[in-house]
Each structure stands twice: as C-alpha cells, then as structure tokens.
C-alpha cells in the first residue's frame, strides 16, 4: 500500500506535471482539498489497522493513533513537494521507502510471547 501511494505520487510528478503542480499549490496553500486527501489516507490506514487489530494480527489498542503515526512516517514519501525536492537531491527513494515500511510494520507487528 505504501509503495503504491509513493509510486502514484512520483508518477504524477513525471507524467502528469500539471496535476502535480496543482497538488503542490494545494498543499503549499493549505487548501481544504489537500487536508482532505491526507485525512482520507489516514482514515484508510485506520480502517486497515483496525482490521488487523480485530484479527489479532497487529498489536495496539488505538487504530486512530496508530494510523496518524503511520501517516507521519510516510509523509516524506507521499507529499508531492517533498518527493519533488528529495528526487532532485537524492534520486531514487526506493530503499528509504522500504526501510520506512519495514519500520512501520515492525512497530505494528504482534510480537509472540
């Protein structure tokens, strides 16, 4: 899920430059649509985490708080302005995204014993 979000934002930067610039303007200008977008991603994460908690596959007791923490951890990989700046500076962010995804999953993982 995280890689797909990142790939979509990165693809938009390259292939849909006008859409990317519009979204950057929305996030820079703190437009309501940008807030809605990030809130909606957080709600999707929350629902996914809640399902994992209910199935006993994840640890924790507050899906909403966990989802907000996940969103903060992933902002550098889904925020259009940050991706644009980081690609210009570092190039491919794949290994960093993989490390961050591993970190998030370990934080949510149910540890036996």
Helix amount: over 70%
Average of pLDDT: 79
**Terminal Cα span:** 28 Å
Helix and strand content put the structural class at mainly alpha
Radius of gyration: 15 Å
**What is the percentage of strand-forming residues?**
under 5%
| Number of beta-strand segments | 0
Q: Which consecutive residue ranges, at least 5 long each, have pLDDT under 50?
A: none
- Quick one: overall form? globular
Summarize the biggest pleated sheet: none
What count of helical segments does DSSP give? 6
What is the N-to-C order of secondary-structure elements (H for helix, E for strand)? HHHHHH
Q: How would you describe this protein?
A:
The protein has six helices and no strands. α3 (32-54) crosses α4 and α4 (63-78) runs antiparallel to α6. By secondary structure, the protein is mostly helical.
In short:
By secondary structure, the protein is mainly α.
What descriptors fit this protein?
113 residues, 81% helix, mainly alpha
Could you give the topology of this structure?
Layout: H1 2-15, H2 17-28, H3 32-54, H4 63-78, H5 80-90, H6 94-108
């Amino acid at each position: 899920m995280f890689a797909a979000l990142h790939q979509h934002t990165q693809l938009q930067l390259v292939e849909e430059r006008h859409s990317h610039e519009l979204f950057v303007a929305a996030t820079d200008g703190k437009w309501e649509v940008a807030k809605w977008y990030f809130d909606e991603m957080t709600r999707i994460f929350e629902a996914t985490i809640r399902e994992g908690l209910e199935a006993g596959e994840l640890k924790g007791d507050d899906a909403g708080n966990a989802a907000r923490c996940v969103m903060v951890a992933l902002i550098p990989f889904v925020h259009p302005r940050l991706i644009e700046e980081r690609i210009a500076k570092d190039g491919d962010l794949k290994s960093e995204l993989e490390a961050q995804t591993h970190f998030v999953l370990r934080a949510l993982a149910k540890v036996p014993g």
